[in-house]
Predict the structure.
Amino acid sequence: MTLDKGYAVLIIFLSVWAVLFVYAQMASPRLIRRKFSRELASRGWIAVDADRAPAWNDIMTLAVNGNLEAASVREYDSKYGPLAIHAQISEKRAGKTLEVYRDAGTARHRYAAVGKKIEDIVSRRSPLLLASQGKHQYTGLEVWIGEARRIPVERPEMVFSGFAAMFGSAARKQAGKRDIDPEAIPAFASPSEVKPVQALREILLENSFAADVLAEVYIGRRSWVMTLPLKRLGSRTGELLDTAMKISEAGDRISASPAV
């Protein structure tokens, strides 16, 4: 049986495309990590051992957990006709530092790292006849950059979400096209009561970089951190460091404000 030349060419094309796609998925993170390392070195950052940098732990903990606990359980009830469904969702977060760097040009505990974030989610539903359990694990390579420092807040707080900013921007554009006041679109992040924190959020909203790379910025009592997916960084390490400096300067103003 003779294979039509057109089909043969199509099969070869798809095979080559599949190989290149798999290679890109495997090689791209490595290339980005190398670029990241070289750019940091050119700006005076040095590689350090995470185990010998105790201040790094506060930053990593905030990067992994954000404004949540390391482990949390959420429960809710739903009603479907005569059936009452009780659901419980357990979440457990962990992280692993793959490489960490310190800014040698400052006395501050300023670090940047590439790490792996791991989330285990277990969901359970009842009653017995409909009982089910699902387990899912999500992992992803991320870039973490931040400082270990005292910040006068009572609890960890999300200052900025790139995804929320992007979604909100799209919603406001659609509102404008439909003659709806864009300001009527609700915010996707609760405004902080601390004015310097509000100012930091405005800085990040004005700077398109943080939204473009889907960054998230958190502040806690002992550190602040910006996280973003490694694959979104590309060749924008310089912009990452410039944005981190703006956050650091805003951190000075936050530290000078009274605790809330």
Summary: The mean pLDDT is 81. Residues 5-255 form one domain. The first helix runs from residue 5 to 42.
